[in-house]
């Protein structure tokens, strides 16, 4: 398995991974409309401050991640997803680990940040197992249809101590 830059034709595959509106919101928030249009994913992939990567075994797209350049020293992990047919096999951890290796290889960023909805227990556990820690930052919730979804802001320092 390896991480590589997203290819536009993969948008159709990724858009099919979310079968319900709530599942889609856990992944994409308000960034995309529901149901997801392939063109929306492709359009976002072309934004200057954003990079899309896929986890692949060479034949199939197994995972997807967005890296958002927040500043010279901060990069943010967004829209992390694993193909429904491959969930529960540790591929989320593999996807995050390979993404962190890519970020570290650039030798530019000091911190990696992300936000996860508290109801996304599996993702939260995954991030904690890799070394992300909760931080006291806003926003602490997003509102969808009048319902507040609590968020945990997390970060991982890339600065070597000692």
Automatic annotation (TrEMBL):
<dbReference type="InterPro" id="IPR000182">
    <property type="entry name" value="GNAT_dom"/>
</dbReference>
<dbReference type="InterPro" id="IPR050276">
    <property type="entry name" value="MshD_Acetyltransferase"/>
</dbReference>
<protein>
    <submittedName>
        <fullName>Acetyltransferase</fullName>
        <ecNumber>2.3.1.-</ecNumber>
    </submittedName>
</protein>
<keyword id="KW-0012">Acyltransferase</keyword>
<keyword id="KW-0808">Transferase</keyword>
<feature type="domain" description="N-acetyltransferase">
    <location>
        <begin position="1"/>
        <end position="159"/>
    </location>
</feature>
<dbReference type="Pfam" id="PF00583">
    <property type="entry name" value="Acetyltransf_1"/>
</dbReference>
<dbReference type="InterPro" id="IPR016181">
    <property type="entry name" value="Acyl_CoA_acyltransferase"/>
</dbReference>
<dbReference type="GO" id="GO:0016746">
    <property type="term" value="F:acyltransferase activity"/>
</dbReference>
């Amino acid at each position: 398995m390896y991480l590589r830059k997203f290819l536009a034709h993969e948008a159709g595959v990724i858009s099919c991974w979310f079968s319900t509106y709530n599942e889609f919101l856990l992944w994409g928030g308000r960034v995309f409309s529901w149901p997801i249009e392939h063109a929306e994913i492709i359009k976002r992939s072309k934004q200057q401050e954003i990079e899309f990567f896929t986890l692949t075994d060479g034949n199939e797209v197994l995972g997807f991640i967005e890296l958002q350049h927040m500043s010279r020293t901060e990069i943010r992990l967004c829209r992390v997803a694993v193909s429904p047919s491959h969930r529960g096999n540790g591929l989320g951890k593999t996807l995050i680990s390979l993404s962190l290796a890519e970020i570290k290889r650039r030798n530019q960023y000091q911190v990696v940040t992300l936000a996860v909805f508290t109801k996304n227990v599996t993702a939260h556990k995954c991030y904690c197992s890799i070394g992300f820690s909760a931080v006291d930052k806003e926003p602490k919730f997003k509102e969808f249809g009048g319902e507040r979804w609590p968020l945990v802001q997390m970060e991982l320092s890339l600065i070597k101590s000692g």
